[in-house]
Amino acid sequence: MTDNNLTRLTAHKLRELALSVPEGQFLGTEKDLLARFGISRPTFRQAVQLVEAERIVATVRGLNGGLFSRNPDMEGVVSSAASYLRSRETTLGDVLLAANSAIADAVGIAAECTDAGLREELAHLIGELTARQAGPQPFAAFRDDELRAIDLFCRMCGNPALDLMIRVLFRVGMAAFEEIFEGREKLMQQRRTARLHILSAIHVHDRARALEICRRNGDLSGTRLAPKLLGRRMQAMPPAVPED
Fold first, then answer.
1. Which domain, by its residues, includes 202?
2. Residues above pLDDT 90, as percent of the chain
3. Residues 138, 197, 177, 98: what is their CA dihedral angle, to the nearest 10 degrees?
4. How far apart are CA 203 and CA 97, in angstroms?
């Protein structure tokens, strides 16, 4: 086995070990793990670097030090995946196509959500959006409302895979959000209205209506954007900065 393959195999073993125990669990000292895996120190350290980059383990130096398990956090995973998509010549059209499909799936599941706390949050958001629906809205506030709605869809659907996919796609797509909507009051108002109707349909468990509005909203996004913008590679756009 080549050194590179041995490093990857060791990284796989470390990854599986870390994910099999609770976060913060002591996995062993370097000496312990070298003996356990029967590998050289350079190979072990290279493997540790790989899984540390995935935020699955943490190395603690000094007395009582060693390798500890940790859970990968959403921000780290989203950031890495978004960077990967930008590096693969992904276009805005690619992002919108995938995002519209994923959001529709999440909305369909969210319409069946019975979690009392999330449904209370949903009712509160609907009330807020309804109160300011009639008047114009600055772009920054429009963007924030969009992110709040998407975040709620993700949490109400309760599907970690969909949650991750949507957050990754929005991290990439937000780079073009301002160019799409800034100064286009009519398009922003259409988006605001569709968003409120989707939330309202979810609130009354009307899955079919929520999905139909999602479909129409997705079709509208595709037809109202210039082909040149849809074909633009996300790599050429400045990355969106995550909100605090």
1. 74-236
2. 59
3. 170
4. 26
